[in-house]
Amino acid sequence: MQHGGELTNLIVTNTEARARPDKMPTIIQLPQLDRDSVPGEEQEALIDRYQRFRLDALKNDPEVFASSYAEENNQPRDYWRKRLANPSAVNLVAVMPSGDIAATWKSGDKWCGMIVLLGPMAEHAKETHASQSPWSKVPSVAFNQSSNQTTTAQGAPAPQNLTYHISGAYTAAQYRGQGCGKALMRASVEQAKTDCTRRGGQSFTIGVHVDTFNNAARVLYKKFGFTVVSEEIYPPRPTEQGERKDRRAYLMQRTERVA
After folding, report:
1. pTM given for the model
2. Is 187 helix (H, G, I), strand (E, B) or coil?
3. Which helix (H) or strand (E) holds 115?
4. I need a surface site. Which of 2, 228, 235, 238 has the fewest CB within 10 A?
5. Angstrom distance (rounded) from CA 29 to CA 187
6. Cis peptide before 238 (omega within 30 of 0)
7. CA dihedral of residues 213, 69, 54, 211 (deg, nearest 10)
8. How far apart are CA 210 and CA 203, in angstroms?
9. What domains sit in the chain, N to C, each tagged with a CATH number?
10. What range(s) does the N-acetyltransferase domain occupy (predicted)?
11. CA 111 to CA 133: how far, in whole Å?
12. In contact, 137 and 113? CB cutoff 8 Å
C-alpha cells in the first residue's frame, strides 16, 4: 500500500545553532527487529514507543508532515513493525539524558526527536518526490550488513555513488533550541558516510524534502552542506479535518566523497 509522503520539515528554532545547553542530546540507534534478536516482549515495547512518538508528532504538529495522524493512526501494528525491521532503514532517536547512566531506548529518558535514514536507494528508485513516501523506494538489501560491499536484490554490484534519503525528522516542542536537530542531522550524515565506506562506494548523496515556508529547517540543512536542487508542488495527505491545500517543497541534497 502506498503511504503518504514523508516530508522532512525538521522543526528547529533560530537559536538552536548557538544554544549550548548544560546537557546535550544523546543519539540512539534503535534495534533493527529480526536482525538484532530483540526478545518478543521488548519488541512489543519498542513498537509501542516508536508508534506513540510518531503519532504524537503527527497530532501535535500536523503542518510539519506531508503524512497525517488520520492516515497513520489507522495503520495496523505490522505497519510499525515493518518500519523497525526494514533492513534499509536506520531509525535514530534523540534523548535528553536525565542522569549519569547511559541512555538506551529502554531507559526512562524521554525521546526528544527522531530521524530516519533510508538507503542506499536502488538505481531505479533514486528519484524521490515530496508527495511519495521514501519508504517505498528502499530496496530489499541489508543496510547494516557486515560485508564490505553490497549488491542489489538482483545481484548487481553497488554503484560508485550511493544515494540515501532523510525521512520523518522531528523535534518535540519542549526540546527545540537544545541541539536535537543538529545532533540528529550529524548522526544521519555520519551513518551514511560509514555505510558508503563499508560498501566500497566512492561518494554518497543524501536527499531531504523540506517545505519552502520552513526557513529554519532549510537553514539547518544548508549548514550541513545541503543545497536546493529542485522544487515541486505536492498535495499533503488529508487530516481528520479534511483535505489540505497544496504545498511547495524543495529537494535539498548533499554529496560527499569518501574515497
Report:
1. 0.84
2. helix
3. strand 111-118
4. 2
5. 9
6. no
7. -10
8. 23
9. 26-257 (3.40.630.30)
10. 53-257
11. 23
12. no
